[in-house]
Automatic annotation (TrEMBL):
Protein transport found in the keyword field: no
The organism's taxonomic lineage, starting at the top: Bacteria, Pseudomonadati, Pseudomonadota, Alphaproteobacteria, Caulobacterales
Protein's recorded name: Proline hydroxylase
One protein family per Pfam: 2OG-FeII_Oxy_4
UniProt GO MF annotations: iron ion binding; L-ascorbic acid binding; peptidyl-proline dioxygenase activity
Coiled coil as UniProt keyword: no
Organism name: Caulobacter vibrioides (Caulobacter crescentus)
GO BP: regulation of translational termination
Co-factor(s): L-ascorbate
Residue intervals of the Prolyl 4-hydroxylase alpha subunit domain: 25-239
Keywords on record: Dioxygenase, Oxidoreductase
SMART domains: P4Hc
GO cellular component: cytoplasm
Amino acid sequence: MSQPPVLRLNPALDPAAFADAYAREGVVRIPEVFEPEVVDRLAGILEQTIDWDIICSDERGGAEVISRARRGELGDQAVADRLHAATLRARSGFAYVYLGYPMIDALVGGRDPGHPIHALTAFLNSPAFIAFGAAVTGERGITKIDGQATCYRPGDFLTQHDDTGVGERLAAYTLGLTRQWRPDWGGQLLFHDDQGDVTRGFAPAFNVLTLFKVPQQHSVAPVAPYAGALRLTVTGWLRNDPPNGRG
């Protein structure tokens, strides 16, 4: 069996080429962030190997995580009721429904020992990736980078919010691993101004790293019911809290 490719950033990347745009615009897109064989491996992990949890917001905006085992306990109707309730809450506030895999918690908690997703979690917290993020964002106090693998199916969504934390979130990121997408399938990462207008939007993409300042109003547009693919990303924050704490 052939060995997986070495997990590394594309050596052709120059972080200085993206730092000015980030400083000026508060957001930057970095294409071809990995070499082809590396990104193909990463996309395959999300496409084929993840035992996804259902993630939906509760009455307080917190996450209810419904694992496969929990779905069996609840039954299909109870799960459907929870998703419907989250969708109704989206009419008037912060709410979301999508599939997720908590990468930091899974690694720290010993979930799925030996799973290839753990190598990506470790890479995101490697000196090389942290240094790259610091060079692009200008944030020199990064101690850790958390991560959640996400899968948006037709109908999934994430309403407007600004990623406000308690001071530990220095910047947000998304790593696009969606191989093919049509713009009318929805799922765009949207940024909003105070008047409610969309100031910019990015369609799901492949091998593209997006970094943006927080707090900043943004959302993920609902994926259309006729979408012919899944929106696959890894998302999280560049943080300055203790590196051994959970994300």
